[in-house]
Every structure is written in structure tokens, then in C-alpha cells.
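Section 3.1: Structural characterization of target chains.
Under the original work plan, the team committed to producing a structural model for every single-chain target entering the pipeline before any wet-lab resources were allocated. The record below documents one such target. The sequence was received from the expression subgroup and is listed exactly as submitted; it comprises 71 residues.
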Amino acid sequence: EEVKKYAPWQLQRLSVRPGLTCLWQVSGRSEIGFDDWVRMDIWYLRNQGLLTDLKILAATPCSVLSGKGAY
């Protein structure tokens, strides 16, 4: 039901396979609006690679433990 509400450009985010963490997770979480979240997913889709993944993984524990952007 949620995907039916996506704008055409937002459908690109569905090409990103879900994982343990993401750019959104380390960039502010709930402080980030949906459109920016989708833009991050699309950026990741275009820039994915081992180095990008390692940077996101390295930033995840600090982001989670800080609680920044958590509900």
C-alpha cells in the first residue's frame, strides 16, 4: 500500500537491497524527511561499493548509541 503512494522517481529506491544499516541510519534518522531518505537510497544505489559500505558500517554504532534522530 505504501509503495502505491510513491512518486515515479521514488521507485528507484526499491532497487537497493535492504541491509543491516543504511546512509539514512547514520545521517539523522527520523530528523530526515522521506524525500531526503529516498535521495540517500538513490545516491547509495549509484555509489555502492565496498568502501561506501565500510564507511556506513563504521559510522553505524556511534549513530545508534548516540540516539540522535531516534524516536
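The helical segments are 34-47, 50-66.
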